[in-house]
Amino acid sequence: MSSEENKSAAEWGPMRSFGRIKSRKLKPQQANLFETLLPQIEASDAHVTEALDSGRELWLEIGFGGGEHLAAQAAKNPQVTFIGCEPFLNGVGSALRHIDEVGLENVLILANDARPLLDRLPPASLNRIFILFADPWPKARHNKRRFVQPETVAAFARVLKAGGAVRFATDWANYADWALERFLACPDFEWPAQGQADWNAPPADHVTTRYETKGLGDCRPVFFDFIRR
Ligand SMILES: C[S@@+](CC[C@H](N)C(=O)[O-])C[C@H]1O[C@@H](n2cnc3c(N)ncnc32)[C@H](O)[C@@H]1O
Q1: Phi and psi (nearest 5°) for 137?
Q2: Which of 28, 44, 69, 106 has the smallest C-beta neighbourhood within 10 Å, fewest atoms?
């Protein structure tokens, strides 16, 4: 892990890509898991370094919401260590409950913005990154709050291993175009899609997310797998 771990909050600027960090009061069981389970599986420097040293594949999910996708993928891929980042504390509470119920031992949780973590990770350390149904910030004046920006795409290129992948999904047409444009502008990524079936249908290993089922966007869900050259 980088020794300059505190530089990034200032470097990324004050722009928040997320909305509320808490809504309703946490249920007692979830509040309890913040005290008992979270310290054991927190994506601290020590835990992430241990994961990196283990030689296991490392997959990152940014904005896991309630953690349904994170927990399901972790259960399906026990050979992989997952890091999930989510600043919305009720979502973290829900993810902790899933992790506890299934007894998952391959998940680390960062209850915060993913961007400083991206800075702290060594180059070529991740195999996969998921950004699923990210906050769309549809009004033009809010577009700068979208998670996908040239800076984040460059950060993904730095932390992914060659052949690694970013999966981006959205049901907002303008965010789909926005993300495509920014990933294709980065020479480190290629998009091997051949035709509509490659982005209009969920990939075989996709797990439906809570936001996906809400259908709040203005188009059918699209799924882009960008490959690190
Ligand atoms: C629309 S929700 C989708 C949640 C989930 N992926 C799903 O599909 O159900 C987007 C989530 O991304 C989170 N988010 C936004 N910016 C983030 C950031 N910088 N780091 C980590 N998570 C972020 C938000 O808090 C929110 O929970």
Answers
A1: 40, 65
A2: 28
